[in-house]
Amino acid sequence: MADQTSAAPPPSQGQRTAEAREAFTAHLNSVGSHVDADLQSRAKDIHANSAAIAKQEGDVSKQTATLSKQSAQYQKLADDSRGKLKEIGDVQNWAEMIERDLMVVEETLRLAEEEAGDEANGHGGSGSRRWF
Q1: pTM for this prediction
Q2: 73: left (phi over 0), alpha (psi -120 to 50) or beta
Q3: pLDDT in tens, 45-59
Q4: End-to-end alpha-carbon separation of the chain, Å?
Q5: Minimum mean pLDDT among 8-17, 74-83, 121-130: which range?
């Protein structure tokens, strides 16, 4: 008896090429799907981060405006305080000048009273003291 096998005839060259092409295409689609999924995930993250950054940018802008207003208020307060301190310094200088003048007047009166007392006691009204 002859050995009869029910083997299928070997595929033709065209059929093998078509199968290889299909396998390669399936592999590319699989790799592409994986890469595409990663890229889509990254794109979603970038979009979400972009929105968060835009919100933060708005918050920083508002905070900067508030800080600018406060800075202007503090600068005005510092300028006003500097002016008031200058006025206090002017008043202190004026008070010191008045005090010196009063001391001169007090010393002058003391000397005049001494001389008047010396003259009343007869201790020489000859004008031995000189006034400048």
Answers
A1: 0.41
A2: alpha
A3: 999 999 999 999 999
A4: 163
A5: 121-130
